[in-house]
Amino acid sequence: MGSYKIAIIEGDGIGKEVMAQALRILRELEQLEPEISFQLEQLDWSSDYYLEHGRMMPENWRDILMPQDAILFGAIGDARVKDEVTIWELIMPIRKEFRQYINYRPVQSLPNIASPLEDKTGINFSIFRENAEGEYSNSGGRMFKGESSEMAIQNTIMTRKGIERITRAAGEYARKHGKCKVTSATKSNAIIHTNTLWDECVERVMREEFPELELESYYIDALAAYFVQRPKSFEVVLASNLFGDILSDLGSGIVGGLGLSPSGNINPEKDYPSMFEPVHGSAPDIAGLGIANPIAQIWSAALLLEHIGETEVAGKVINAIQAVLEENRVLTKDIGGQATTEEMGTAIIEKLNAQY
Ligand code: ATP
Ligand code: MG
Predict the structure, then answer these.
(1) Where does the Isopropylmalate dehydrogenase-like domain start and stop, copy by copy (predicted)?
(2) Which pLDDT tens digit goes with each residue over 223-259?
(3) In what order do the strands lie in the sheet with 236-239?
(4) Whose CA is nearest to atom 3 of ligand 1?
(5) pLDDT digit string (tens) for 139-178?
């Protein structure tokens, strides 16, 4: 219970539309929970901002974000600005400099949501993706451009410290939430330097610090198949940056799609603010139409509430989302309905009120 400072970066396209609904939820919670209040710092960092200022964020962005308890982010992406700029000048600096080394993604079956799986109920696991190193490094380069000998090298950087801390985060989450098993994704049979270090560090941390938890380890190719064949067998999945990225979208795909999937970029030590965002992008194809599904954004706000310690309130927001889907009446286009973004927001607010 308390007063929380939250930075709001709605970004581009549908980011603005879905964020408006998440903000309605936060305002509603202030009414429903007299002891909770939010100081929202709304920041217009976006592609428009870039076109005007020549940068995605002001120079003092760290000073603006540091005092915040958390950051709620919408989506970024615009045809007028290169992806390298939007990603490497906004999302990446925040993730890296604020040591948000966990990318957390819950994967959960939701009522009445179409899935490519025949048996789609009862899926409930969490992915811990390493978010600060690994395959997504800038190190490398291209040689002999245009010649027949042209080549490119991209280095993967994995450190003992980096692997140990993401493993610890997964283990601690499993312990806290009463899970019994952690599943590690690897490819140490083919990627023999970085992935053997991964296996060794994961194995040691799990054995020494979480002896009560079972550790299983699968090659990423096999694990991708198991995600489809027996997704209910997973509880906590631990993966490198690239493997975790792919598994996260696969996880999102088997339970119903982008409009429903939240994520957190988390600094568990809380020495820097963490950032919560929907998995989807700015969706230029539907931007401005008012038909985007706000659930992923609202669920991301719930993950934020959980992170700042408001676990019970976060649970109520997630219950409200589930109650709307359970009722199967108000549905946006992506999940087979006609409702607008705002109507979905209103329906979730109603279900939230019903819990008080
Ligand atoms: P970006 O470059 O910003 O990542 P993108 O086009 O690569 O954008 P998304 O924005 O994630 O990827 O969109 C992928 C597809 O999913 C699009 O067809 C989009 O309309 C749809 N989509 C994404 N998010 C939502 C949502 N919240 N509600 C409805 N449809 C969505
Ligand atoms: Mg995208």
Answers:
(1) 5-348
(2) 999 999 999 999 999 999 999 999 999 999 999 888 9
(3) 37-43, 3-11, 70-75, 274-278, 262-266, 102-108, 124-130, 236-239, 181-186, 214-219
(4) 281
(5) 999 999 999 999 999 999 999 999 999 999 999 999 999 9
